[in-house]
């Protein structure tokens, strides 16, 4: 995962960089209860997904075990918890976030990164091979983008059960949902909750 070359203009926080694309590709593999399937269900499913994502640098012939898929799910779910915290999701704060951060520290120790320094800049890479390289590539992408200062703009949709990862491109960084559709669903849900709380009377606009 490459950093911005020396002397190059800093990307806008609303630009979807290759590092963000790598992170979002990885986290947006969860089943969501409304149609999306679990793409890391087992080793075969994980390997099939990797064969379609050359950005992870493991090739189409990679072999993944069920244990590898379980590691991928745990890493992904920890990242999703962090992205939900970026969206201010209350259920992800406190102990769930602390647990996710502890897991990410353990993963970082298991899959260390190596800097490649050139005259144009510094690139973080995974020195490992096979599936382990995938986990390193995810960590490298997170680290590279976080160093831009815009890590908090990578969020997970607050509309349960969506939790789809997205880059918040709003001017003030206050986006909470991956789409207007999810925002509308949450608004409608709150409207109905107010109606039930008020005994079925229509709520005020």
Task: Give a description of the structure.
By secondary structure, the protein is mainly alpha-helical. Helices cover 44% and strands 8% of the residues. It contains six helices and four strands; from the N terminus they run ααααββαββα. The chain has helices at 18-27, 43-51, 66-86, 95-110, 131-146, 180-197, and strands spanning 114-118, 121-125, 154-156, 165-167. The strands form two sheets. A two-stranded antiparallel ribbon has the order 1-2. Helix 1 packs across helix 5 (131-146), helix 2 (43-51) packs across helix 3 (66-86) and helix 3 (66-86) packs across helix 4 (95-110).
How are the SSEs placed, and which strands pair?
Layout: H1 18-27, H2 43-51, H3 66-86, H4 95-110, E1 114-118, E2 121-125, H5 131-146, E3 154-156, E4 165-167, H6 180-197
Antiparallel strand pairs: 1-2, 3-4
Helix pairs in contact: 1-5, 2-3, 3-4
């Amino acid at each position: 995962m490459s950093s911005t070359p020396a002397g190059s203009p800093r990307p806008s926080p609303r630009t979807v960089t290759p590092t963000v694309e790598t992170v979002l590709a990885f986290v947006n593999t969860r089943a969501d209860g409304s149609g999306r399937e679990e793409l890391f269900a087992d080793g075969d499913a994980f390997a099939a997904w990797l064969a379609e994502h050359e950005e992870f640098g493991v090739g189409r012939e990679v072999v993944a075990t069920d244990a590898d898929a379980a590691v991928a799910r745990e890493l992904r779910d920890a990242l999703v918890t962090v992205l939900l915290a970026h969206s201010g999701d209350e259920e992800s704060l406190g102990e769930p976030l602390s647990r996710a951060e502890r897991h990410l520290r353990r993963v970082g120790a298991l899959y260390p990164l190596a800097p490649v320094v050139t005259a144009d800049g510094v690139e973080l890479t995974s020195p490992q091979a096979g599936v382990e390289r995938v986990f390193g590539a995810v960590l490298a992408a997170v680290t590279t983008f976080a160093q831009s200062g815009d890590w908090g703009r990578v969020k997970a949709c607050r509309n349960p059960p969506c939790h789809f990862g997205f880059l918040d491109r709003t001017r003030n960084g206050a986006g909470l949902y991956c789409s207007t559709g999810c925002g509308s669903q949450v608004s409608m849900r709150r409207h109905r909750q107010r109606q039930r709380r008020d005994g079925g009377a229509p709520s005020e606009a």
